[in-house]
């Protein structure tokens, strides 16, 4: 009896070694995988409405092939929207087998080599969702070293996002803000990545944005300038009070002359005719490219219309 027991144990051990050895070898066989696709298609749900069964021939160890064949869970994959082609008749989007091959490692796992898909293409259904495109607005708190300033507004990418939700939710969202961007003592260009503030109860197409701020050294120039009138019809003149203002220019260092020598400060006659009080905003024309910013004091002047004497 003892010999039979020992014999059976040896037989079982031999069979186990044989099985492990064979399952460790590489094989090529057909497998079936259930896939649930996700994508960032504009105006569509993020997840497909139902999983799709993929049939393929793959090369892998026997262990891996058995694991794939006996898996009962849906495999999530994220598909680039550019790889999907819309079927205009319904909500279905098709991806070719050659494009789907790029996602083989996500579908079958590491250590599995795709030989071929058994179908030419596969279709996924993404239902429509209410959506609205709104701008991304950076929330910036920046300070600069003396004689330095921003060369312009902060650039942000993407500059807009798609918000998904009910109509009542979307009508109250006009923009998506970034998390506060705090910058101190700037004297050179700055850039980075900011998280977006996620409005409650909705989905947004992006979760973060890259930003860049150009910083330059400047010189400040002040000049007294005259204020003219543009657009007045023939036979009508407009008196401006005061007719002299102080202009302040911030120019890139080093400055190439005084901008006041080429700029023209004026009020627009059409704005005067639409003004009840007769107050007009002072504008600036012919601003040189080296000027970063300008201001004039006073910004608003009083105007009075007078007919020219015959």
Would you mind describing this structure in some detail?
This protein has helices spanning 2-23, 62-69, 97-100, 104-108, 167-170, 269-273, and strands at 26-38, 52-61, 75-78, 85-86, 92-96, 113-117, 121-125, 131-137, 140-144, 148-150, 155-157, 160-164, 176-177, 181-186, 190-195, 203-204, 208-213, 215-230, 236-241, 244-252, 264-268, 279-281, 283-285, 291-297, 300-307. With 310 residues, it is of the alpha+beta class. The strands form seven sheets. Strands 10, 18, 20, 21, 23 and 24 form a six-stranded mixed beta sheet that branches. A four-stranded mixed beta sheet has the order 3-1-2-6. A four-stranded mixed beta sheet has the order 13-8-12-16, with no helix packed on it. It is elongated and about 125 Å long.
Radius of gyration: 35 Å
Helical run tally: 6
* Biggest β-sheet strands, sense, barrel: 6 strands, mixed
Mean model confidence by pLDDT: 88
Shape: elongated
Give the DSSP E fraction (strand runs of 2 or more residues): over 45%
Looking at this protein, list some descriptive labels.
four-stranded mixed β-sheet, 6 helices, six-stranded mixed β-sheet, RNA Polymerase Alpha Subunit, Chain A, domain 2, alpha+beta, 3 domains, 310 residues, 47% strand
Quick gist of this model?
This protein is of the alpha+beta class and 310 residues long. The chain contains six helices and 25 strands. The longest helix is centred in the first third of the chain and has 22 residues.
């Amino acid at each position: 009896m003892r010999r039979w027991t020992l014999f059976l144990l040896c037989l079982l051990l031999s069979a186990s070694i044989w099985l492990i050895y064979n399952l460790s070898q590489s094989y090529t066989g057909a497998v079936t995988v259930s896939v649930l696709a996700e994508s960032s298609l504009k105006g569509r749900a993020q997840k497909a409405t139902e999983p799709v069964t993929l049939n393929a021939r793959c090369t892998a160890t026997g262990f891996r092939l058995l694991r794939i064949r006996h898996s009962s869970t849906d495999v999530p994959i994220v598909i680039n929207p550019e790889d999907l082609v819309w079927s205009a008749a319904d909500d279905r989007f098709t991806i070719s087998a050659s494009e789907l091959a790029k996602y083989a490692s996500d579908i079958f796992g590491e250590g599995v080599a795709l030989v071929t898909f058994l179908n030419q293409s596969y279709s996924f259904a993404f239902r429509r969702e209410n959506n609205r495109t709104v701008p991304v607005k950076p929330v910036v708190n920046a300070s600069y070293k003396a004689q330095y300033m921003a060369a312009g507004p902060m650039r942000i990418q993407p500059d807009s996002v798609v918000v998904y939700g009910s109509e009542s939710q979307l009508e109250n969202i006009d923009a998506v803000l970034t998390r506060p961007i705090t910058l101190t003592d700037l004297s050179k260009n700055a850039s980075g990545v900011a998280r977006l503030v996620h409005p409650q109860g909705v989905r947004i197409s992006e979760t973060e944005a890259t930003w860049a701020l150009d910083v330059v050294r400047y010189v400040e120039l002040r000049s007294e300038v005259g204020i003219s009138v543009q657009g007045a019809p023939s036979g009508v003149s407009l008196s401006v009070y005061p007719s002299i203002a102080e202009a302040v220019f911030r120019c890139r260092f080093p400055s190439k002359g005084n901008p006041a020598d080429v700029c023209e400060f004026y009020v627009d006659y059409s704005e005067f005719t639409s003004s009840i009080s007769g107050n007009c905003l002072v504008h600036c024309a012919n601003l040189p490219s080296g000027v970063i910013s300008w201001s004039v004091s006073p910004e608003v002047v009083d105007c009075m219309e007078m007919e020219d004497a015959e």
